[in-house]
Amino acid sequence: xxxxxxxxxxxxxxxxxxxxxxxxxxxxxxxxxxxxxxxxxxxxxxxxxxxxxxxxxxxxxxxxxxxxxxxxxxxxxxxxxxxxxxxxxxxxxxxxxxxxxxxxxxxxxxxxxxxxxxxxxxxxxxxxxxxxxxxxxxxxxxxxxxxxxxxxxxxxxxxxxxxxxxxxxxxxxxxxxxxxxxxxxxxxxxxxxxxxxxxxxxxxxxxxxxxxxxxxxxxxxxxxxxxxxxxxxxxxxxxxxxxxxxxxxxxxxxxxxxxxxxxxxxxxxxxxxxxxxxxxxxxxxxxxxxxxxxxxxxxxxxxxxxxxxxxxxxxxxxxxxxxxx
Amino acid sequence: xxxxxxxxxxxxxxxxxxxxxxxxxxxxxxxxxxxxxxxxxxxxxxxxxxxxxxxxxxxxxxxxxxxxxxxxxxxxxxxxxxxxxxxxxxxxxxxxxxxxxxxxxxxxxxxxxxxxxxxxxxxxxxxxxxxxxxxxxxxxxxxxxxxxxxxxxxxxxxxxxxxxxxxxxxxxxxxxxxxxxxxxxxxxxxxxxxxxxxxxxxxxxxxxxxxxxxxxxxxxxxxxxxxxxxxxxxxxxxxxxxxxxxxxxxxxxxxxxxxxxxxxxxxxxxxxxxxxxxxxxxxxxxxxxxxxxxxxxxxxxxxxxxxxxxxxxxxxxx
Lengths: 325, 318
What we know:
The structure holds 2 protein chains of 2 kinds.
Chain A: E1 6-17, E2 31-42, E3 46-50, H1 57-64, E4 72-77, E5 80-81, H2 87-96, E6 97-100, H3 114-124, H4 130-143, H5 150-153, H6 162-174, E7 180-184, H7 192-209, E8 212-217, H8 220-226, E9 229-234, E10 237-243, H9 244-249, H10 254-261, E11 312-313, E12 319-320
Parallel strand pairs in A: 3-8, 3-9, 6-7, 7-8
Antiparallel strand pairs in A: 1-2, 1-4, 4-5, 9-10, 10-12, 11-12
Chain B: H1 7-12, H2 25-38, H3 41-59, H4 62-66, H5 101-137, H6 139-154, H7 157-168, H8 173-200, H9 203-210, H10 215-251, H11 262-271, H12 279-307, H13 309-317
């Protein structure tokens, strides 16, 4: 096995959304979306970022592509800082990093035909002439499974189904042949069968273009199906990381276990495999204890409620952020 | 998906041929909108009235071409030197120096359209651009532009234009048009700004940002087509106010003396003391001003129904 080459590194990235104080009392509370979050993605791998709603998964993707500024920490792509890139350097960066958004009904401009949509990145980066662009768009539509591509070129988003739209969005992201692709819950708006097709397509793209993918999802099944490694995110902190197979088949962190328990299963609806969850409500965390402490069954008093755990490296190459290990 | 040609042929034929024909989205949207618009009685009346006025404006060149005495400005009937009522020779009668009122009324329609539509276009141009920039850039740019808009908005247009024309003497009609436009953009800017602010964080705009699109490209390729219908709606309301302001200016004696507008006609009735002696002279321009502004307003109201689905639903329930 080749030694992995790290492509994207995020170290101690923090993002706080400030809620403004309203005029009539009601003190604004800052929402911590990411709390000293660190992650490395290697070239050519599919990295799954798993977590419940509001755990900061989407914030990670928005920070990487610069849709929002980070409040602290460092994000590097190929060793270059990506925060605050301007002008030609930013353009070069956007050529290599692209995003597939969550909602294919919102991410396509209704006024653009499919050709215009997929062609736009080529126009922006001034690649090729008319003929080349047309050929390129057809080629990428074909790759993403919209065949025959010619019949799609002059259509508009509202004439396509959700799955087809998402394929168009993927084609738009892939048309520049980026080296890194962020898929932000690309299938949450699609039904199971279409989702599976999209997973297969992503895997195919990785194999034929060697693109690294950050796959953001709330579905552990999808992560296991598709990813090489997964990271579990809770309240803006990475609580566990390891290979997809190991992490999901043999979870270490109580939160990962709770996530697996939450997965619906046929038959044994009452029975929980791990039973780690004490509270279903998610209280607002205090600063000075483990963020998962209030909901954690195996939590140890006097340890877990008094200090915050840090990410520990285990021998098996996994990382976990819990005092139990 | 149905395909008119066999798959192999469609893939072979790269230009035309196997490609299905599709109308551009905005045309389709326009046709959809028109289908809804047609069901609106108020809108239908508005469009019919507008067509009538447009016809008047179009035929306004004919009378003077038939006979120079029908020229609305300079044509004087040599046999008449006082105001006369409607006759076969002069359908609406003549003014006090023997000019034909009917041809004046037709010319007035032309001027109303020119004034209304040009100044509305200019104010829409300003309003949309400023609104989009303020809404997209936000922060300080937004603050400065919107406070400036507020300042312009609270200025009473008519009064300011009156003072300016009192200062600089009789103003050319185009100067009046531009001045009306320059005072009427803030309302448009506000609406477009709020629309832009809601569009700015939509995923398709963010996708364009991620693809590396410039701000110019995002504003004019992505946001503009989405705010355009709203801008057009506001244009109809701006047309109304521009026509009214021009008429008021002209009636008060500050219009362009070289142009025959309906406001000018009213000013002449009043100045020559025919206000209550010659209803055939007073009423037509007055009625025309009311009708054309009403027509534009009705068109705008009906367009509002098309653009705002909530209004439309209420319409159906009733």
